[in-house]
């Protein structure tokens, strides 16, 4: 089996951490080759906090060799902090870890900007790299603006966690957090990535109605077993996610970014339903700014299909993936 | 059993006709008292065509005594014919009936404007009249503007066919026909009807995914039986709906307006799922203009619940309702 | 000279009062015949306060015979009180007059709604009535929606105080008060009044940069002379306008509604510059909602000219008009 | 006198060429030091055509040493070619020059991207470089997104040709070409450049109403004199501007980009009126998308002044500037 190249473009929350852990474990098993972690501000936290959090995971996993690049500082139009819901704390990791555990950001990040790094890496391995975009799409939108269609032409496949397809919002009443954090970027990426296939995990399949991994299973059952097995990164995430999840009293654990990566690694088992659409992002709606909009009229000549949407995920399979990451099982 | 007062505010399509037929049959069975039919332009057809079509049904049912009032000529902002999809033909009835079968509109409609008629009728019987709004909501929006909150305070209950709740559009990619035909009116009614409960049948439960009454059952099986039983109005609608439906090759028959009235008359059997929400209508979205938007954040203090949404309908039950209208069965 | 028929559709501020006074004085001089005063809510004050204020003027002028009709309660979309700047006080007259000086509103207003009154009056005298619209355009927009193009076809001429043409706002940063109070209505009237010429006095020619009648001239010089001459209505307005203007420390007096009527009565002397345009009203702009927008590309085939804009007014002439109203001079 | 550092960020039209020529002549006179020419697509032409046109001027002026950097390929949201008015031809220079006169773009442009070049140059000489932005503001917006507020903090002064302040449009009915070509970029720059003063020459002072340099003076009188004097670059522009201007039958010559540079170099003589405002750019208006909007309410605490607007320019002085460039006069 030949390892697939991947880049992780993330915004540093605890589910971004799980996505990274999953890629690292997949790499250990010869399934992927992780070329870079790129960060973006304007989502869960600043690009520097994001870099620090990802560095913590890499360190706990003894993979400080993976290069981290700092990306966009802000969304295209600037941030509207007033409107935003912070779920992951100010630092993306629940503000519960000791800052002294981490080197200075400037000491471990690469000198190149994330946008340039993505562009250069993909140019060197055209159509060979899968890009996971699990934060606001600012870095990608900037890449398309700076380099045009060519930017997307070199990417093999774009896998996005973000948006919604039935109008269910978690950041505003009708918009999902990643898209709502930079609606113009989301719009631009869907419009400009004509030469690169896109798979999207939207918000709806991650909601309680569709995805049921009890938070008690995550924090008590599984969390205890992983800690007992001595998994340093998961032990750290036990703390982070307890701080984030327990006060909210949400019944289920849905680390969306990791669900996307799991769906990509184990599609036949993980994905129970998917469909293809022409999708765009509304920018001007009073309530629907940042909402993804599908072409329900199916006017395919005018609006060709540009995204594949994952509609239903097998949560039992996802539990097995998580146990696999923790070393608690050999196979998924 | 005490008959409930109803007014039918409609835009003259064939499903409006079915809604009227259902009310007439319910009246014959002592369930309701139909006080007026009011018409609106800017939806399926002009307010005059609408009046003519409803008059045809009333005549075929020997109920010329039911008064018809002409309502709004246009949507609040004027019509955008370019954007619209006409399903019911220019005249709302598939353009297939002989115009000579009908009196002149001015000879049979009431002199009062529909908006004034609704206002006066409801003032006389405060909180006793259920208003079915099965076209664009223009007449109601005008009433709220002219008379303020008082206009709604006299209405017992507002039952609306229109809008959507999962972003599925049939008039634009993200908007349903009735709301899209006058988005400002839909917005205004949801915002202003604070003293009058609202039930909405949106588009999604009427789509193939959720509602399956085969068009062949309608036009061949049931249509033949109703014609054989000598039902004049249904025989006329057999012709109208054949012209409308067959060229489209839609698999299912979903006369939305009639489904709403049936759900109201027979709620326990008809309605399998409903929920309450704060809902508004987006006016400014590029793609979501006219889309209904639910408050998925459930910020109830700021945005109190204002609508009840019918999410799932029993289509087998609806078939029984239709047979009941045709006199093919005694009970639903 | 043959008197011209006029209707005054107003929202009850002190400049509405001056517009009424000017029409009453013109009528006394055989220049016009005032058929009705119609009121609208959603502008300076409620429709009832508006009626009361206009009644005060009519009484002070001994013209209780002029019929007053109550119009729209609210703007088409409902009011956004948060966004509004009240200049004229809660009651439109600076909240400084004794409420006991006035009869009950229901005792002196006509039973018919203003929209119906305008429609009926203009139908009876087609193309003979000039309609002054000096508040939000809600009544007219409702008329066009209820009756279609025919509503405008009977009006001889529509004279509007409202809007702007260089982006200068007084209600929001880019919108004028009357248009901003019901942007949809302003948009609809400009779009639908195809069979009726429109003259607009926008905000810019009324600003200090273009119009200089010192408030001291108004309140001290002229006000004292009119009071000395025993003009009851102006004496009342001396009080009202002192309360409104002095705390603001605005240097100039610009009773916009009266300037419009004066420009119409004495156009050759009053109007120094005018131009014709295709104009519309922006509804969706973040900052430009309610702004009037001219077709500076002059794409006349697609967008025919629909308004005449008064760009510059002679303020010295206006002072003479005011003195003429007060009986301080025989001619303008 | 100490030369001031400048960078020219342009989109390659003939007025961009005049702006460059003016800077080159100023440099020859020891007034400025031109560090770089950066190009952007999405305005008059592609970034490559822009580079080629600027190279032609540099060559004609024997200044091939000035580095040219390619910038953004597209606007942030992608281009809407349908809506755009091309004044300068497909290639920005009237499509009238022989393509063979120019080297390959890749052979003379710098390897660095314009956004990085601007960032690096300004970081090296913090608060010493004046940046002229005379095309769509895409490069600057990308810089602010990638590097945050720091990007602007290093710039001494930003001089922009673009936008409007009285709603006069030349690209759409209410928007000016440069801002309309990338409204999001214009919005972002005005919002984010908090640590860098901005001077704007909007469209209105360049219109016939305010600026009168007859096209006949430019092409016949002055053009002939400059050609006779053997000025190679102007001789080339004689051809280019004849092709662009004459078919349009515009009466006046208004090379906006050069007017801005002239106003900066010779402010006391050139600028007859200026004012400071809080300004933003409307993004969502149906007609006002891309329009600049001033805070006419002057709510300075909430919206601090962020731009200086040049309202009136002395066109006689500009003619002297142009003659100075051509070597036809020693002083302005
Ligand atoms: Ca994330
Ligand atoms: Ca209907
Ligand atoms: Ca007024
Ligand atoms: Ca330019």
Q: Tell me the structural class of chain A.
A: alpha/beta
Strand content of chain A is 15-25%
Ligand kinds: calcium ion
Q: Tell me the radius of gyration of chain A.
A: 18 Å
Report the mean per-residue pLDDT of chain A as an integer.
Answer: 95
CATH architecture annotation name of chain A: Alpha-Beta Complex
The number of distinct helices of chain A, counting runs of at least 4 residues, comes to 13
The number of strands of chain A is: 10
The CATH topology of chain A is given as Inosine-uridine Nucleoside N-ribohydrolase, Chain A
What is the CATH level 1 assignment of chain A? Alpha Beta
What would you call the shape of chain A?
Answer: globular
**What is the CA-CA span between the terminal residues of chain A?**
17 Å
Count of domains of chain A: 1
Main interface: chain pair and counts: A-D, 29 and 29 residues
Q: Largest beta sheet of chain A: what is the strand line-up?
A: 3-2-1-4-5-6-10-7
- One letter per element, helices H and strands E, the order of chain A comes to EHEHEHHEHHEHHEHHHHEEEEH
CATH superfamily of chain A: Ribonucleoside hydrolase-like
Largest beta-sheet characterization of chain A: 8 strands, mixed
Assembly type: homotetramer
GO molecular function (chains A, B, C, D): hydrolase activity, hydrolyzing N-glycosyl compounds
Pfam family, one (chains A, B, C, D): IU_nuc_hydro
Family (chains A, B, C, D): Belongs to the IUNH family.
Domain Inosine/uridine-preferring nucleoside hydrolase (chains A, B, C, D): 6-319
């Amino acid at each position: 089996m030949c390892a697939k190249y991947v880049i992780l473009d993330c915004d540093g929350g605890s589910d971004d951490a799980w996505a990274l852990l999953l890629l690292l474990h997949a790499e250990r098993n010869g399934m992927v080759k992780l070329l870079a972690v790129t960060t973006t501000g304007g989502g869960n936290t600043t690009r520097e906090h994001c870099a620090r959090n990802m560095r913590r995971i890499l360190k706990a996993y003894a993979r400080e060799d993976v290069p981290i690049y700092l990306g966009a500082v802000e969304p295209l139009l600037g941030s509207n902090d007033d409107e935003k819901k912070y779920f992951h704390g100010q630092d993306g990791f629940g503000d519960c870890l000791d800052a002294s555990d981490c080197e200075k950001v400037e000491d471990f990040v690469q000198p190149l900007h994330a946008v340039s790094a993505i562009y250069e890496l993909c140019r060197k391995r055209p159509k060979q790299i899968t890009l996971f975009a699990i934060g606001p799409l600012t870095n990608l939108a900037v890449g398309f603006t700076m380099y045009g269609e060519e930017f997307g032409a070199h990417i093999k496949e774009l896998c996005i966690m973000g948006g919604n397809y039935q109008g269910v919002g978690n950041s505003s009443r009708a918009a999902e957090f990643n898209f709502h954090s930079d609606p113009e970027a989301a719009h631009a990426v869907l419009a400009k990535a004509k030469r690169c296939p896109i798979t999207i995990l939207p918000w709806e399949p991650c909601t309680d109605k569709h995805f049921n991994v009890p938070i008690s299973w995550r924090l008590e059952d599984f969390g205890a077993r992983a800690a007992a097995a001595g998994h340093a990164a998961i032990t750290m995430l036990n703390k982070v996610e307890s701080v984030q999840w327990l006060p909210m009293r949400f019944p289920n654990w849905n680390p969306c970014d990791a669900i996307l990566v799991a769906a990509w690694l184990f599609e036949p088992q993980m994905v129970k339903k998917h469909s293809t659409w022409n999708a765009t992002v509304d920018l001007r709606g009073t309530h629907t700014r940042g909402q993804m909009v599908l072409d329900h009229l199916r006017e395919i000549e005018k609006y060709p299909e540009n995204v594949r949407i994952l509609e239903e995920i097998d949560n039992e399979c996802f539990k097995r993936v998580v146990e696999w990451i923790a070393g608690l099982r050999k196979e998924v």
